[in-house]
Amino acid sequence: MLVPFNLGRGFSLLNKKLRDILNGGLDGYNLANVAAGDLVLGVPGFIHVLADQAGGASKDLITTHKIKVLNVLAINKAAGGAADGVTVGNAANAITNLIDMNAVDATAKWATTIDDAFNVIAAGGTLRVTKANGANDQNEDVYILAVRSA
Prior knowledge:
Distance between the termini: 46 Å
CATH class: Mainly Beta
Number of strands: 10
CATH architecture: Sandwich
Mean pLDDT: 81
Structural class: mainly beta
Number of helices: 1
Order of helices and strands: HEEEEEEEEEE
Largest sheet: 5 strands, antiparallel
Number of domains: 1
Strand content: 25-35%
Low-confidence stretches: 1-11
């Protein structure tokens, strides 16, 4: 027979929070902010942007929370051409290098640089995905790895 035991109020509150997250889904609204030196784990997540021809040169997303961009992955949805590429920025300031997408269909490339002067975007700020060749670029799936920031 199992004997119930009390792990204290802290465990009960943690259990309730986990239950609330599981019932409501895990999203950016119920994740903690992460600051340097925190011992609380931040849960990174991906923001998906379809950089398509209909979008022209740039796609802008307004952030609901302060975020820190950690990395970017771009995947070709068709063969790229000589001037094709993508950059992720904090409004007009580039966070990543130009990710060269002059490659075959389904090629996946990570950003090779993240500029720490611009990779933190304030709540209400603009996360911008810019295609180097504008509307002439092939479509790309762009996945931005970010975490909420304190």
